[in-house]
Amino acid sequence: MNFVTIKKIPTAEEIIQQFPLSEDGLRRVSRHRQEVKDILAGKDERKLVILGPCSAWPYDAVMEYARRLKRLSEKVNDKLKLVLRLYIQKPRTKKGWTGPVNRPDPFLPADIEAGIKYCRSLMVNCVEMGLPIADEALFTHNAKGFLEMLSWVAIGARSVEDQEHRIFASSIECAVGMKNSTTGEIEPAVNGIVAAQSKHMAVFLGYQVETLGNKHAHLVLRGGLGGPNYDLEHLRQAKELMDKNEVDNPAVIIDCSHDNCRLNGDKDYRRQMAVASEALDSLSDQPELKKLVKGFMLESFIQGGNQNADKLTSETINRDGLSITDPCLSWEDTEKLILEMSKKV
């Protein structure tokens, strides 16, 4: 094999013992998962909103965001179910920082053992606070110790056509959102949903297993190279594709960030507010499509915008909730938007 061994990593069981989740925490995760599924299946009329930092760093700022989100959630819980976006692993188009699970300090060499402990501790604290949490399935081989705490999982635009990710989605117990590809095409993601909802033979932990299928796999529209795809035309296309493929519990989450916040070819993270508002307004007289759209995703942190960690040092970087990956809405704009959305749904 073409690698150099650095050090042995503690087992997932050892990490779990070091950062245990309480029985109350386990029960909360089970309840949150069921509520998310009920919303996607139309049994609960609330909308999902999956929101939080582009990447879960730094620790203290993420915890401060979580505390604010918990208070906000209590104000809107009758209309919206807020799920904390706690993304610990980052896909890169070419190369770059792959998130705190691999490198918990962006200014030091990668330390996966420290990263696993950082992320496990962060997730446990947020779940014990009472929040449902979400992550993207990027490194599927490293899921144990994290997966059991998640209430929602994303399969990203770069992974949605990958068979391993589709089988992984088929095997897990929480709802899975399949993003359309970076080109903006919707059909590959619907194909991914069909695959995720189906059974598969696979090898897990040295055993041949049959996955049972994830009946709450659903579509996430995030725009593409051609621009946004949250408009009624694309929603109708998504509905037709899911109807054609007899998808169980057909549902769409609109990702207000990424290519959906493009305007005249350029991305503007502040347009996330307009995307959510425009989508809700356009759906007001479209009962079938309004029924299809089950929620929204937002990239949001304490401060608006982002910073380039490659051009900063450990001493000069802002650690008070300013993203080091994609730009995010400020907390003030986030709170304003969530309160407005709760009045429109």
TrEMBL record:
<protein>
    <recommendedName>
        <fullName>Phospho-2-dehydro-3-deoxyheptonate aldolase</fullName>
        <ecNumber>2.5.1.54</ecNumber>
    </recommendedName>
</protein>
<comment type="function">
    <text>Stereospecific condensation of phosphoenolpyruvate (PEP) and D-erythrose-4-phosphate (E4P) giving rise to 3-deoxy-D-arabino-heptulosonate-7-phosphate (DAHP).</text>
</comment>
<feature type="domain" description="DAHP synthetase I/KDSA">
    <location>
        <begin position="37"/>
        <end position="337"/>
    </location>
</feature>
<keyword id="KW-0057">Aromatic amino acid biosynthesis</keyword>
<dbReference type="Pfam" id="PF00793">
    <property type="entry name" value="DAHP_synth_1"/>
</dbReference>
<comment type="similarity">
    <text>Belongs to the class-I DAHP synthase family.</text>
</comment>
<dbReference type="GO" id="GO:0005737">
    <property type="term" value="C:cytoplasm"/>
</dbReference>
<keyword id="KW-0028">Amino-acid biosynthesis</keyword>
<comment type="pathway">
    <text>Metabolic intermediate biosynthesis; chorismate biosynthesis; chorismate from D-erythrose 4-phosphate and phosphoenolpyruvate: step 1/7.</text>
</comment>
<dbReference type="InterPro" id="IPR006219">
    <property type="entry name" value="DAHP_synth_1"/>
</dbReference>
<dbReference type="GO" id="GO:0003849">
    <property type="term" value="F:3-deoxy-7-phosphoheptulonate synthase activity"/>
</dbReference>
<dbReference type="GO" id="GO:0009073">
    <property type="term" value="P:aromatic amino acid family biosynthetic process"/>
</dbReference>
<dbReference type="GO" id="GO:0009423">
    <property type="term" value="P:chorismate biosynthetic process"/>
</dbReference>
<dbReference type="InterPro" id="IPR013785">
    <property type="entry name" value="Aldolase_TIM"/>
</dbReference>
<keyword id="KW-0808">Transferase</keyword>
<dbReference type="GO" id="GO:0008652">
    <property type="term" value="P:amino acid biosynthetic process"/>
</dbReference>
<dbReference type="InterPro" id="IPR006218">
    <property type="entry name" value="DAHP1/KDSA"/>
</dbReference>
